[in-house]
Design goal:
Layout: H1 14-31, E1 38-45, E2 51-60, E3 63-71, H2 80-94, E4 99-105, H3 110-114, E5 119-125, E6 132-139
Parallel strand pairs: 3-4
Antiparallel strand pairs: 1-2, 2-3, 4-6, 5-6
Length: about 140
């Protein structure tokens, strides 16, 4: 067998990342009967159509995984994050999801999620150093 070479890339080509994602999705499809992966993204734009807040992730196999939630610094505390999270939860329900999962670093907003019905399921301390990484879940009810 010929030796395979590892190549570390700090700026990989987008098509290489898409290939990797496609391969893991193919594997997941074979394991999960209801594999229906779809991206989920909701944005708040200003009058010039510049994104000032947004949330994104995926829905698949009855779950929603939130990867990013961001609000411009000058707009924080005005309810945009809560509105985005509620909208993502509703879209997840509409797609048949029963659970939302996400993570938040201690310097981000872990308390924000707890206030909105998310349960802490795990935490890694000192990751990154002097901070923690918290993992949350929220069960969705169909009636909301």
């Amino acid at each position: 067998m010929t030796e395979k070479h590892l190549l570390v890339e700090d700026q990989p080509a987008e098509q290489d990342l898409e290939f990797l994602e496609d391969q893991i999705n193919r594997y997941n499809m074979a394991q999960v009967a209801a594999f229906d992966a779809r991206r989920l993204a909701i944005f708040v734009r200003d009058e010039q159509q510049i994104i000032i807040a947004g949330i994104s992730g995926y829905t698949w196999a009855g779950m929603c995984e939130i990867q990013f939630l961001w609000v411009a610094a000058e707009l924080r505390g005005q309810g945009h994050g809560g509105r985005l999270l509620e909208a993502a939860e509703q879209e997840a329900r509409d797609r048949g999801c029963q659970i939302v999962i996400l993570n938040s670093y201690s310097f981000q907003a872990p308390g924000f999620y707890g206030q909105r019905g998310y349960s802490l399921v795990g935490q890694i301390d000192n990751c990154p150093p002097h901070h923690s990484n918290s993992y949350f879940k929220k069960m969705l009810s169909a009636a909301e």
